[in-house]
Predict the structure.
Amino acid sequence: MTLIAVYTSEGCVGRCDARCYNAHSADCDCICGGANHGAGFDRAVDNTRQMFEEWIGAYVKEKHLTDYRAEIADEVIQTRMF
C-alpha cells in the first residue's frame, strides 16, 4: 500500500510504499528519506502521519517541482479507534 505519493503531469514521481516499510535491505530512495525504511506498516503510518508535510516539502524542493499534487493514504489521515 502506498502511504504517500507525489504526482506531476508525467505520473507518480515519488512515493513511500510497502517496498520501503517492509524493506530488508539498507537502500532507500523514497519520499520518506528513509524514516519508514524497514519500520513495518503500523510504524510507517505513524511516521507518515507526523511527517508527511515536511517530506512533501523537502521532496518537491529537492526535485524542483512546481506543478504537482500529493496524495496521502486514508490510513494515514484517519486516527485509529483501537
The chain has a mean pLDDT of 92. The two ends are 21 Å apart (CA to CA). Residues 4-77 form one domain. The helical segments are 18-21, 41-62, 74-77.
